[in-house]
Amino acid sequence: MEGLLCDEDWLSTSAETHGKRLSLVCVGAKEDEDEEQAAVSVCMAKEMSYMPEPHYKEFLETQDLVFVRLRCIQWLLKCRSRWNLSHGTVFLAANYLDRFISKNRTKEWKDWMVELLGVACLSVACKFHETYPPTLTQIQMEDYMDHVFDESSIERMEVTLLKALDWHLCCPTPYSYIHLLGLNLESSLLMANITELLVGAVLDHRLMPFKPSLIALSTIWCSLDLLPPITSQPSLSYFMRLFNHPHKDEMMKCRAVLEAVQSSRCPQSPTSVLMKDQSY
Q1: Is the dihedral of CA 74, 75, 77, 82 positive or negative?
Q2: Cα separation of 17 and 130, whole Å?
Q3: What is the pLDDT of residue 32?
Q4: Labelling 219: which of 99, 151, 155, 250 has CA 20 to 30 A away?
Q5: For residue 74, with 0-12 CB atoms within 10 Å meaning exposed, 13-18 middle and 19 or more buried, which class applies?
Q6: 51-164 maps to which CATH number?
Q7: What digits encode the pLDDT tens for the residues 37-59?
């Protein structure tokens, strides 16, 4: 997976240049599209092996774990801001968290157990994904959760986590698909909207049943709605071809949930309205 990640930057932060860039993506050389489609296909072929166990969403709801999971993911995001971690690290940690809980449904989960697991997940994700990972002491400096754990407890939890996941850490996430396609999340207002949607997706348990590729494509789809049709339609067609999802009904369901997540987080911003009306 790491070998497939693309470091290509979008070439401008201006809306005009970004619109042109999207058009260039859509009419690029067929060989480039074939390479990107092959890379996406590799991730899609293995993503089911890295998802939580079936009916995980329902388990969270019946065990009253929705809120504590939400707080844990919020803490991951706060740590990302404090230590300038990548979005990829947060999505990996969230994936580890959900997979571990879904594999341990017989346990009577307490809030402190989820918090300890969250610290261990972030620690492992940082070691796997960051060049200079923060220490366990630094990780817990973000005063958001209710408990502080000693290093030995966290390290034991890390070992338990790694064994439960069978050391399968390089997992496709919605963010990894965005990164794979060379979409730099800091390069424009459009990419900022994708970031906001991705964060909303990882926070909301209602998207648990959907594959990461579906979430990534739905995020791109929703964000392209901010552009004029002359730009958004060719771009959407390009990304649809890349992902080539056979189950269109699932794609529509995923987009509907993502739109509900978006509307529940905040109303449409004036910036989004202006972008919709702006010509490129």
Answers
A1: positive
A2: 31
A3: 66
A4: 99
A5: middle
A6: 1.10.472.10
A7: 788 888 888 999 999 999 999 99
